Amino acid sequence: MTMTLRRCLNDLPKLSPKQLFLFHWWHNTKYRNYDGVICDGAIRSGKTTAMSISFVIWAMYRFDGRCFALCGKTISSLRRNLLDELLVNVKKMGMSVREHKSSNFFELTYNGHRNRFYIFGGKDESSAALIQGITLAGLLLDEVVLMPRSFVEQAVARCSVTNSKLWFNCNPDGPCHWFKTEWIDKAEEKNLCHIHFGLKDNPSLSPQVIKRYKRLYSGAFYKRFVRGEWTAPQGIVYPMFDTRVHTFKGEPPCDKYAVSCDYGTVNPSSFGLWGRSAGIWYRIDEYYYDSRKSAHRKTDEEHYQGLCRLIGDRNVDVIVCDPSAQSFIQCIRRHGKYSVAAAKNDVLTGIRKVSDCILQGRLMISEKCTDTLREFNLYRWDETAGKDCPIKDNDHAMDDIRYFVTTVIAAEDTRPFFALSLERN
Question: Cβ distance 115 to 64 under 8 Å?
Fold first, then answer.
């Protein structure tokens, strides 16, 4: 085969030493007998692009007529984060690409070698069944920590072709995550090469962009995403929240209104009224009812009346509600006065996005929202859980804020705000 690594690398932008190593480790006398490579580290540190291109070069250099797999949490996220850019790059290198999107695979041809690359999503335990039965000569798992262990182990078991290799990349999670304890900590035992990336290992990032990433995160998210550490979150969930900076008096003139609801029967119910002014969302007022303190459980209708009093005569575009509170969602719909949508409820993603919004100054809390301010000071990580999760206490306003950010603000960032009011989840 006449294709050379030098020719391929000449078609790429400037590479860091670690990126260059990724491209030739499998061709290097010292490392070529390793069974695979693991790359972990900071976000945007250049590991994904370098790994994916190197994976394809290796496959086309060493094999002909074989099958390979590229896996992400979902097929759509894999296409967005890796595949679209990968196919552009391999075409520039002179490889012929034939896509079969409906069947989730593509074929590459170069210098008489043709190989097939299947695309898989590993989002939950049932995903393991999707990859059963296939025989692979190589496997790339993008953001492997987001996949269930059963899927990863089943995918690894599919690599039975002689000289097949495994390629893993991820951002760090907690120090007790199974991939950290079973793969990274045992890399030498498993005959795997481990490379840790930092932001400076991506030459395409300017010093200004690196400084911006450092400003965007704090606490455990800073340690993981910026410093690339496998660390457990500790202490208060939102240490960046400062009442001197993030609270206000009065009510600003707003062009949009929304409500977020965390509904409880035994546990407290927390509703937040939000108004948008000059691109900032203000929590203008709250409804917070704790049945254990009052010794009386309210019905759906009683909570609905509380919701109406909170809103008053304002024109609310949408109410985002705890997705598990189906009876209350139906109560709102039955009255026909407000549009309601079930909130997105990924806890860790939501906490990260709320943290981002606080740091960016996109959320402000009224001094009237005393229960919200109390919870901000008490909402803590559970350091005994063995995984990332907050303590399920003093979290009701925190949950409704998370619903608001992951549903309303996320929608605002990606599509017209009014589209939420048309959804009937």
Answer: yes
